[in-house]
């Protein structure tokens, strides 16, 4: 039976550690075997720190997938789209792997990170490291409740995980888009609560949508709603967490879905101005400084593909 990696649809935690990595070794056989052990290592760490609710996942970069698993590829796996319109842009940053760990204890998160890095050894190099955290009662650093329309309960699995109707070879895997977003909090704070609510389209305390009669112009809530142009639901689970220190700060946006084309259209609807010249107004106060896409396979896929037949190592077939 397929089983999703624990960090995909886990409940929110207090601390997060995300490592964007490049593979430094040509020994893909060894790397596949090490990747197959990743979910078990996370499970062992979770048992050791049971009160910390430790979860995690490993994702393989869209550009690196064919090197690691040349015999089969997720149907809709693609590089992060190049988004650029006027002064709004999200340049692509390809990485080979993403390793993510999350739990309710900072020390356990740190130890888990060290354990994982020791396991991979010199096979990988960390290109970007992001420590994230839960802020207040699940808000982002702009002061608003983050992703208030996120799916809940079993709908998390339905939105994020591939089922047999999507792709039989990758059941319980998930497509992942990641954005490291930097906020301009000085400009944002200067606006004041009323103007901020107008931009967000929501009440700051409750997160409820503002009545249409109170809205002047386009809002983030309207441009980032989880409905496509045909008013059909977009299957998208956001597992975002704030990051930063007193010099710079922002949001680590992680978007999981079993239908990545819908997520790409959702991103484009926010970045590209429509016929009325309207785009997501929150982009005037933020900048996406890292943008990458991955596939997070099921634990079964990692185990069953830890060793490939010799004739498939170079991508050839019988």
Automatic annotation (TrEMBL):
Transmembrane segments: none annotated. It comes from Idiomarina zobellii. The lineage of its organism: Bacteria, Pseudomonadati, Pseudomonadota, Gammaproteobacteria, Alteromonadales. Pfam families: Dyp_perox_C (PF20628), Dyp_perox_N (PF04261). The keyword Metal-binding applies. NCBIfam families: Dyp_perox_fam (TIGR01413). Residues 138-299 form the Dyp-type peroxidase C-terminal domain. Its cofactor is heme b. This is Peroxidase. Keywords: Iron, Metal-binding, Oxidoreductase, Peroxidase.
